[in-house]
Amino acid sequence: MEANIILIIIMLLACVAALVFACRGMFSNVKTARNVDINKYMGTWHEIARLDTSFQRGKYNSQAFYKLNRDGTVFIINSATDKNGRKVSASARGYAPDPKDFSKLRISFFRPFYANYFILELDEDYQWALVGGNGKKYLWILSRIPQMDAETLNKIINLAKERNYDVSKLLFNKDLIPK
């Protein structure tokens, strides 16, 4: 009996170690924007386009508001309009595992569970951002203003294509608004 308990503990520790190792590897291999000034990134961002996600399905006019806390963490409020026309929101906490690299954040809406938030590309004037997560199933095109000119949008879409995202599956906010 005691041998079985020890074996179970060893197996659990091995699983945890493998999970931590796998997550660290995924985090470090993603090429992100360089020299992100977290203070300039703070404020309101409007979603222009995204890949479909279960947690955003049926929502449009999404915005994210970021505020830097005194302890260096980031307070986040995501808001949107649901299919019934109601405003909905969710708050989160984020932090940079490497305090010298704010292009790679860990975000949690439900602690203790965190997800990666990668600022993949960023306008030099902080007017637009291309944001992703692990793998290729999460992608957002964000802008400081609710509309984006076609030339800039096409440039960002091409950047996403170069990163092997399936841009044919992008959902554009303007198309999600009920008629």
From TrEMBL:
Residues 36-172 form the Lipocalin/cytosolic fatty-acid binding domain. It comes from the Bacteria. PROSITE patterns: LIPOCALIN. InterPro entries: Calycin, Lipocalin_ApoD, Lipocalin_bac, Lipocalin_Blc-like_dom, Lipocalin_CS, Lipocln_cytosolic_FA-bd_dom. Gene3D superfamilies: 2.40.128.20. Belongs to the calycin superfamily. Lipocalin family. This is Lipocalin family protein. It comes from Intestinicryptomonas porci. The lineage of its organism: Bacteria, Pseudomonadati, Verrucomicrobiota, Opitutia, Opitutales.
